[in-house]
Amino acid sequence: MNYRIFPKTGEKVSLLGFGCMRLPVLDGDHARIDEAEAVRMIRRAIDEGVNYVDTAYMYHGGNSEGVVGRALKDGYRERVFVADKLPLMHVHTAADVPKLLDEQLRRLDMAHIDMYLLHDVREMSWEKAKKIQIVNILEEKRAEGRIKHIGFSYHGETLALFREIIDAFPWDFCQIQLNYMDTALQAGVEGLQYAAGKGIPVVIMEPLKGGKLTDALPESIRRYWDGIEVKRTPVEWAFRWVADFPQVLTILSGMSSLAQVEENLRILSDVDANMLTEKERTIIGRVADAYNALTPYACTACKYCMPCPVEIDIPGIIGLRNEATVFESVEKVSFSIRNFVRPLPSECIACKQCEEKCPQHLAIAEIMAESAAMFE
Ligand SMILES: NC(=O)c1ccc[n+]([C@@H]2O[C@H](COP(=O)([O-])OP(=O)(O)OC[C@H]3O[C@@H](n4cnc5c(N)ncnc54)[C@H](OP(=O)(O)O)[C@@H]3O)[C@@H](O)[C@H]2O)c1
Predict the structure, then answer these.
(1) pLDDT at 72
(2) Can you give the residue ranges of every domain in the chain?
(3) Closest Cα to atom 8, ligand 1: which residue?
(4) Which of 83, 110, 184, 292 would disulfide-bridge 115, Cβ 3.0–4.6 Å?
(5) What class has domain 3-284?
(6) Distance 38 CA to ligand 1 centre (A)
(7) What is the rounded CA–CA span in Å between residue 337 and residue 345?
(8) Ligand 1 — pocket residues by CB below 6 A?
(9) Largest CA distance in the chain
(10) In the predicted model, what is the mean pLDDT of the chain?
(11) How far is the CA of 117 from the centre of ligand 1 (A)?
(12) Distance, CA 22 to ligand 1 centroid (Å)?
């Protein structure tokens, strides 16, 4: 396994981190983790050098933390950084923060959490975090020894907000979504460089775009990969692209089988920063362009269509609808929409106010109806 240095303490962090949001499940039920298999996978990864395990209050319907806690019994706890996240969506008053942290430590059955993040910081949740002065509460918890390092995970819409958050507190680390398709989404590559420029190491989530940059490839995309002399799987290319940035502390991978653990251990033991050649970078860029060319609806996410009277996230839904075609991933998008998106596209009332404002003249009501039929 390759390691990078956590600047605050000089400790080594494995380049592959275990993301515990996509553990194997029973009967396709996201809340029912196949615990025996998950424990086997997590311990196997640690035995091979992984020392960063990431979970959250919400993952697997609230069951990920418990499984992680049990996987880390028998001496495994001491070998890893445990990362867990304060679910801002459940924080309404300052008193909720210690209550939630207590519950998380109980679920984990641990005395402390090493890396504690404000979960899913974005426009609204950041306002709330500031109002409640959550970071001051976390400082108190750190002084009590219940958490060690304080960070945040970012899913806001703009780089500007990411910069504001970075500048607002001396964070020990932060976490962003990054892969070769999402270079300018949310924080993006610029955000990675901004954080690192301030001495804040960056943990990467969704390096495979939630599993879309894997083997199920449209023919037009496969042709580009086949054009590279060095033969690697699409998964390996995607990991290599992220690992190439020296600013990355660890790459969290959600893994749902032991075979994926083995493959990702192999890949991330074999790469380091600044290893991609110019030619390889160009091909990866062409693959991203080829994916984008498959987009069925020309939404630019300008948001002129917003606000929607029933509060549907119109650009978000169209983005997911596009992804379903581009990545031939209707099942994965359905999962995201059913579990994480509210209001649902079927709640569209077809008032068409949005269509009058859309510069691309998209038939938004029709796209919502189509999305409801496809995903719900
Ligand atoms: N803080 C936040 O707001 C936040 C948000 C998202 C994620 N995260 C964290 O970041 C971690 C990583 O993100 P992610 O799980 O969303 O996305 P990801 O790592 O980009 O994708 C995970 C999926 O990739 C597929 N995969 C992994 N290794 C593979 C391999 N070797 N071959 C083929 N397919 C492979 C699996 O898909 P299948 O299961 O379909 O096989 C897996 O479920 C999460 O697990 C979580 O810990 C945090």
Answers:
(1) 98
(2) 3-284, 314-375
(3) 205
(4) 83
(5) alpha beta
(6) 14
(7) 9
(8) 19-22, 54, 85, 119-120, 153, 155, 175, 205-211, 214, 235, 252-256, 260, 263-264
(9) 61
(10) 93
(11) 18
(12) 6
